[in-house]
Amino acid sequence: MASSEAGPKYLAVREALRRRASALPEHTLLPPEPVLCAEYGVSRITLRRAVDGLVADGHLIREQGRGTFVSRPGIRHEYRESFVHRIAGFHSVMTEQGAQVGTSVLTQRVVPAAPPIATELGVGTADDVVELVRLRSVDGLPNHVVRSFLPATRYPKAATEDFSHGSLYEFLRREYSADLAHARIFVDVGTAAADEADVLQVTAGSPLLVVRTTVRDTSGHPLVHSFSRLRPDVSQVEFEVSVGGR
Questions:
Q1: Residue-wise DSSP of 156-210
Q2: Cβ contact 72:230 at 8 Å
Q3: How many other β-carbons are positioned within 10 Å of the β-carbon of residue 76?
Q4: Is the dihedral of CA 185, 188, 191, 197 positive or negative?
Q5: What are phi and psi of 177, to 5 degrees?
Q6: In this structure, are 142 and 173 located in the same domain?
Q7: Biggest CA pair distance of the chain
Q8: Are residues 51 and 124 located together in one domain of the fold?
Q9: Does the keyword Electron transport apply (predicted)?
């Protein structure tokens, strides 16, 4: 049986331990498990699950026979999409900054639009959309999984294009002269499902940043809807806002 503690409680302990570790010098030895269990009021199973996630993310390190020590995660990579002077996607912006961006296509298919996607794209639920799921990495480290949806009748080549490199936005401009004029962005928090955890190299249930973007043309017609699910330990979201004429 799964303990009732194995859900939100281990995530709360994990976050408390993460904040605690971030305030301590690197290589600081944490108290032993019984002390931490008593301090946080949890079972050893729950504590170990919380610690496992922090070890996987690089905040802690275990040494056999010695204990658990504070570590520091690798260099953070900013997740950037520029919407100031032109709409440029993650690949274009990060490449311009000199980062090595990798892409693995996980899913590429034509499917009926699910109700939330149909609403974002202004199509019917019986209409076909191209679903494109990609794992993006920066300098060899998994960074985020992005799911993009486009109307299949408007962009049929998106179902067969090789997206293992390059930018989806640049593809739309090149192949369809797409007028990418406006973007609406929402940022939320989610948790990693088992399949996402596997490809992002985190523990299932780990917190993720969720960035939802709908790009429209100058007339306000939606062209593409995407949502990216990011590892918060190796990425951060940056917004830059420019007021025209000022």
A1: GGGGTS--SSS-HHHHHHHHH-----EEEEEEEEEE--HHHHHHHTS-TT-EEEE
A2: no
A3: 14
A4: positive
A5: 50, 40
A6: yes
A7: 65
A8: no
A9: no
Torsional class of 44: left (φ above 0), alpha (ψ -120 to 50), beta (otherwise)? alpha
Q: Note whether 53 and 124 are same-domain residues.
A: no
Supply the pTM of this predicted model.
0.66
Instruction: State the average pLDDT over residues 232-243.
Output: 64
Measured CA to CA in angstroms, residue 203 lies from 79, 107, 186 at distances of 21, 22, 25
- The neighbour count for residue 15, using CB atoms within 10 Å, is 14
Instruction: Indicate the SS3 state at residue 135.
Output: strand
59 & 108 share domain: no
pLDDT of 78-91, one tens digit each?
Answer: 555 655 555 666 77
Which pLDDT score, from 0 to 100, does residue 5 have? Answer: 39
CB count within 10 Å of CB 215 equals: 26
- Cβ count near 197 (within 10 Å): 18
Looking at per-residue confidence, does 88 or 124 come out higher?
Answer: 124
Residue type, 79: Y
